[in-house]
Amino acid sequence: MRGEVIGVWSETWREIWSKLAKHPDAPEDLFCELYRELAGAFETTIDVTALADIVDEPDQARKVFRKTKAAAFRGEVALLEFFERAHNVVVDLGGDPLANRYFLLTESFLEKYSLRYDLRRPFSLNPTLPGVFARLIRELREATYQDAELHPLMVEFEDAIRDLKTSQSTGRIKTCIQKQVNLLEAIGQRCPGVTSNTLGAICDEVGTWPHNRLKDAMKKLYGFASDYPGIRHGGTPANSLRNIEMRDLVAVSILLAGFSPYLTNLINSDTIYRGS
Question: Which of 130, 238, 259, 265 is the most exposed place for a label (fewest CB within 10 A)?
Answer without folding.
Answer: 238
